[in-house]
Automatic annotation (TrEMBL):
The Peptidase M14 domain, residue ranges: 295-618
Family: Belongs to the peptidase M14 family.
Keywords of this entry: Carboxypeptidase, Disulfide bond, Glycoprotein, Hydrolase, Metal-binding, Metalloprotease, Protease, Secreted, Signal, Zinc
Active-site residues, as the UniProt record annotates them: 588 (proton donor/acceptor)
InterPro entries assigned to the protein according to its UniProt record, in alphabetical order: CarboxyPept-like_regulatory, CARBOXYPEPT_ZN_1, CARBOXYPEPT_ZN_2, FA58C, Galactose-bd-like_sf, Peptidase_M14, Peptidase_M14_domain
Organism: Macaca fascicularis (Crab-eating macaque)
Tree of life domain: Eukaryota
GO molecular function, one term: metallocarboxypeptidase activity
Name of the protein in its database record: Probable carboxypeptidase X1
One GO biological process term: proteolysis
Signal peptide: 1-20
Tagged with keyword Glycoprotein: yes
Length: 731
């Protein structure tokens, strides 16, 4: 039977998990906290009951009731109205649950935006510490959500860590000018080898880095001790009892995990303040002149925004759904073209997909911004946008994993952590959920069966993948059907957490290899496409920026072969290349997977030109129509083969095709079942627009005979003579 213990937080001591040698909790109001590893400061009961103002000036006291159920503490609130009080701003200390995590039922408001440790707006030179165990554990690594390298003790470790003999460790951030600090978010050390995190800390402020004052506890007037982490990854937010205006902020670890060292990753919440004396240059606020909706949109808001864009530009937009998520949310696509809803002969189809990982939110917002921008600029007569919409059909899928996004959105941009919301509601990583077509292709190549027995393109789905009990997410099935329905030529899959463009293959050819250079036959095209996006992205081209985590991709032009980075079996990029005509790359848009809303204008500016320029690359290569000589109708599923490139594409149902190629001369062959093949030279230049390369195919005598017999017609004399000659040659 469950044992329940009810106690009011104002009168009973808190009970927390035993991280140290004793199961004790220290009162936040104590004048000092003994630095015993594993001891955790308790929430001050008086702080837990600070009044929060209502709209009419009546304060509401939140009396917290603790229900302890087998060491698991559940927080409940009961509102109690008190007498009206003068309107004042109450800033209660927001504390975590005893498990060190925020209550998932409530979305915490962080007040001021992040200073920019995670997004790299804060440079390494602004971070200092009392000591560091090594360069790889220096203060420049104390950034929220920073990821370590695979090797322990290298230059890219996953936190700031003080030396073990440091008796008064501190981590310091220089804001560069007077700033209103309102809160702190912390994590422990990211490592596959060690567990280290801070369990409590104090906060100090300074204007000159010499004279310091602390954040005070309202009830006792003593320095406040803030509860920190109970695991290495969950972000824990503490709002200051009273915001402080200063230039410098210090975090002073008081206790940490027993047997470990004081290690932390942090983000500082801070608002800019005006300087009446103009002693400090005001920091340039990131922004954009485009009149767009720069905020994060949950599912309901996303639908509303897409509807508004359609109502504003009904002649060039169409909204449709390709399926539903596991939770039943529709996967909406915005189509943008001068003839929405129909495939025009000779007009290529392109797509952007975002939100495959629900917590990587920037791609979702960029596509919502892109559809607004295309609509506005088309109405303004922007010639570049007009040409895009008249020469191609653009499909924008802002949220492939809406279930995961809703989880991440509910937590908030700074508190979602590195992985929460990544998977769909079945705990499936959608970027590992597509059919592995690489393995059967490579096995057939090793046996010498490609392309005569096994094709080098449009590989069929494996039998196991089509079974009813196959582990295939509904989101994945919907996208596969979408790929088959529309003859896509070019795509990009928008992710977050790094600044790099990766291209296929994503899976290593050597089984079980963690990383290995594994290029496709179209490596030159994929490198071109990747370089175009990376070269047009402002953040990637910033030579002064530091690497996001543990790899410096700038030394290779901010592009990398996916398998040479880390192997990803079942990726959407590889599947698109091997199962359809579509060439697709992955764009890692930002170090911060879920940037704060105030960073969205700058992120849009970083990516706006890259998004447009990448779409324009669909004009690179050759394009044309394969027709029947007799009927002059297009031939569907004709194969377009380029000499020297062991990967073919096929024509769409109208006989039109697009073959992406880098500049050069190519011998191209068009073939179709029942027709004589035709080969011709096609030249691709650096000039805009695909080189027209059309084909007219003649039916073979056997095919003509089949069609005549099927129609019940007599065989013409010339065809009868040709068939007799063919029989004589065989004899």
């Amino acid at each position: 039977m469950w044992g329940l213990l009810l106690a009011l937080a104002a009168f009973a001591p808190a009970v927390g998990p035993a991280l140290g040698p004793r199961n004790s909790v220290l009162d936040l109001a104590q004048p000092a906290t003994t630095k015993v590893p594993g001891s955790i400061p308790a929430r001050n009961s008086s702080l837990a009951q600070l009044p929060a103002e209502t709209a009419n000036g009546t304060s509401e006291q939140h009396v917290r009731i603790r229900i302890i159920k087998k060491k698991k503490v559940i927080m409940k609130k009961r509102k109690k109205l008190t007498r009206p009080t003068p309107l004042v701003t109450a800033r209660p200390l927001v504390t975590p649950t005893p498990a060190g995590t925020l209550n998932p039922a409530e979305k915490q408001e962080t007040g001021c935006p992040p200073l920019g440790l995670e997004s790299l707006r804060v440079s390494d030179s602004w971070l200092e510490a009392s000591s560091s165990q090594s360069f790889g554990l220096g203060p420049h690594r104390g950034r929220l959500n920073i990821q370590s390298g695979l090797e322990d003790g290298d230059l890219y470790d996953g936190a700031w860590c003080a030396e073990e003999q440091d008796t008064d460790p501190w981590f310091q951030v220089d804001a560069g000018h007077p700033t209103r600090f309102s809160g702190v978010i912390t994590q422990g050390r990211n490592s596959v080898w060690r567990y280290d995190w801070v369990t409590s800390y104090k906060v100090q402020f300074s204007n000159d880095s010499r004279t310091w004052w602390g954040s005070r506890n309202h009830s006792s007037g003593m320095d406040a001790v803030f509860p920190a982490n109970s695991d290495p990854e969950t972000p824990v937010l503490n709002l200051l009892p009273e915001p402080q205006v200063a230039r410098f902020i210090r975090l002073l670890p008081q206790t940490w995990l027993q047997g470990g060292t004081p290690c932390l990753r942090a983000e500082i919440l801070a608002c800019p303040v005006s300087d009446p004396n103009d002693l400090f240059l005001e920091a340039s606020a990131p922004g954009s002149s485009d009149p767009l909706d720069f905020r994060h949109h949950n599912y309901k808001a996303m639908r509303k925004l897409m509807k508004q864009v359609h109502e504003q530009c009904p002649n060039i937009t169409r909204i449709y759904s390709i399926g539903k998520s596991y939770q039943g949310l529709k996967l909406y696509v915005m189509e943008m073209s001068d003839q929405p809803g129909e495939h025009e002969l000779g007009e290529p189809e392109v797509r952007y997909v975002a939100g495959m990982h629900g917590n990587e939110a920037l791609g979702r917002e960029l596509l919502l911004l892109l559809m607004q921008f295309l609509c506005h600029e088309f109405l303004r007569g922007n010639p570049r946008v007009t040409r895009l919409l008249t020469e191609m059909r653009i499909h924008l899928l802002p949220s492939m994993n809406p279930d995961g996004y809703e989880i991440a959105y509910h937590r908030g941009s700074e508190l979602v952590g590195w992985a929460e919301g990544r998977w769909n509601n079945q705990s499936i990583d959608l970027n590992h959920n597509f059919a592995d077509l690489n393995t059967p292709l490579w096995e057939a190549q090793d046996d010498g069966k490609v392309p005569h027995i096994v094709p080098n393109h449009h590989l069929p789905l494996p039998t196991y993948y089509t079974l009813p009990n196959a582990t295939v997410a509904p989101e994945t099935r919907a996208v596969i059907k979408w790929m088959k329905r529309i003859p896509f030529v070019l795509s990009a899959n928008l992710h977050g957490g790094e600044l790099v463009v990766s291209y296929p293959f994503d899976m290593t050819r050597t089984p079980w290899a963690a990383r290995e250079l594994t290029p496709t036959p179209d490596d030159a095209v994929f490198r071109w496409l990747s370089t175009v996006y990376a070269g047009s992205n402002l953040a990637m081209q910033d030579t002064s920026r530091r690497p996001c985590h543990s790899q410096d991709f700038s030394v290779h032009g901010n592009i990398i072969n996916g398998a040479d980075w880390h192997t990803v079996p079942g990726s959407m990029n590889d599947f698109s290349y091997l199962h359809t005509n579509c060439f697709e790359v992955t764009v890692e848009l930002s170090c911060d997977k879920f940037p704060h809303e105030n960073e969205l204008p700058q992120e849009w500016e970083n990516n706006k030109d890259a998004l447009l320029t990448y779409l324009e690359q669909v004009r690179m290569g050759i394009a044309g129509v394969v027709r029947d000589k007799d009927t002059e109708l297009g031939i569907a599923d004709a194969v377009i083969a380029v000499d020297g490139i062991n990967h073919d594409v096929t024509t769409a149902w109208g006989g039109d095709y697009w073959r992406l190629l880098t500049p050069g001369d190519y011998m191209v062959t068009a073939s179709a079942e029942g027709y004589h093949s035709v080969t011709r030279n096609c030249r691709v230049t650096f000039e805009e627009g695909p080189f027209p390369c059309n084909f007219v195919l003649t039916k073979t005598p056997k095919q003509r005979l089949r069609e005549l017999l099927a129609a019940g017609a007599k065989v013409p004399p010339d065809l009868r003579r040709r068939l007799e000659r063919l029989r004589g040659q065989k004899d």
